[in-house]
Amino acid sequence: MKAFTPLCCAAAMAACSFSASAQSSRSLPSGNAGVTVYGVAATEMVHVTNFSDGTHVGSSNRLENSKVTASRLGFIGSEDLGGGLSAVFNLEMGYALDTGAQSNATATFNRSSLVGLRGGFGTVTVGRQWDVEDDILSRYFIFGGYGVFQFSEFAAISDTVINSVKYVSPNYGGVTVRGLYGFGERVTGRIAELAVNYAAGGPLEMGATYRTQKDINGYNTQLATVGASYKLPSTTWGEWRVHGGYAWSKPQLPGSHRTAAYDVGLVWSPESNTNIALDYVARDQKGTPDDSRFVRLGGEYFLSRRTSVIANLIALQNKGVASQRFYGVGAAGEDQSVVSIGLRHAF
Known about the structure:
- Helices cover 5% and strands 54% of the residues.
- The protein is mainly β.
- It has one domain: Beta Barrel (Porin), CATH 2.40.160.
- The chain has a 16-stranded antiparallel beta barrel.
- The longest helix has 12 residues, at 4-15.
């Protein structure tokens, strides 16, 4: 690697920490009327090998909008309607901090645009909203940008669904149930999802999801996931949590293959302001040698309650003609290494 690499490695190891928070980390408020403006401003300096622009393949040094926590601006609020019923809404847009441009040129509120009701029956929302996988899987898979949803068959593990209705049940002894239906309207095809999650405040959390999508050409794709997380007893060395997730994708598209993905990881918090994570993630395309896998060491060090330094070391391997990537368009059989360090501020 070029001179940039050891410099970033040193900075990464000095600041190495990680917080495995979901891309959509948020919760709809309840209570009296009010609107909150919130957001994230984050960027990363990145060195990436085997970067392909479709014509050339080579190393690249880049200033990027952060993958760990995408920059965003949002508005969230609620109104107490009485009798235990509240109206809720959320509008959220993504933007690229390095350029100032919207992350989606055709949808201003590409990360969320929903309205709904919350009461003793649970919460019902309609609009563009995060899928049920994104809601619960951040405890079982990497959700800090360099994650399993970067694999081409598993993007739906963290995605928004337009024209959708979503239901989230009350918490029954730590168990919540979620369901989503996307009408598609000749744009994305119909989507139906179901999720169940157990999180009672103890060391063990478990969840599972199922999704089926019929595209506008009538082809169906199924996606199922299961995961668990366990917090180990605290020690003088800090706090430890282990997690694991399994995902299975079955598309009907011509030429497609059933594919499985695995994520096994450890999160270590030696101090209250420091988190370090190590994950191994593998993608197994059934019936072919075109598999992929990567190891990620990531971290986050909090300079204050709102501001943190983030760092990542990633080694991605492609077998056969697999062309998975974190940056660029991908190149058949080419591995990719990423070293990044960045700054994130939440407001």
